[in-house]
């Protein structure tokens, strides 16, 4: 079975932030993780990509930790990567973003992707 891949939009080098906890959670669960943050070179020892369009595909999952307004700015770029699923984490979702993602044909999951891989954010 191939290793699952995930791009974390809003990945952070701050270990207290959910964008960092998600990187660590997905790594612990065996995902190949691509952190995306235009202001970082590495996160948790992984190369960080300035935009999702620069992440080598294909992607099984995109997990978004961005404010909804920023999510709307990048959702077409996300759709161009053709991920199997897009997770809008708490605080990243809005009705407008969900609607636009679905219009673009994306499979949207509105939930915490850390819980989705079977871990608790509090444990990270």
UniProtKB/TrEMBL annotation:
<protein>
    <submittedName>
        <fullName>CoA binding domain protein</fullName>
    </submittedName>
</protein>
<dbReference type="InterPro" id="IPR036291">
    <property type="entry name" value="NAD(P)-bd_dom_sf"/>
</dbReference>
<feature type="domain" description="CoA-binding">
    <location>
        <begin position="1"/>
        <end position="92"/>
    </location>
</feature>
<dbReference type="Pfam" id="PF13380">
    <property type="entry name" value="CoA_binding_2"/>
</dbReference>
<dbReference type="InterPro" id="IPR003781">
    <property type="entry name" value="CoA-bd"/>
</dbReference>
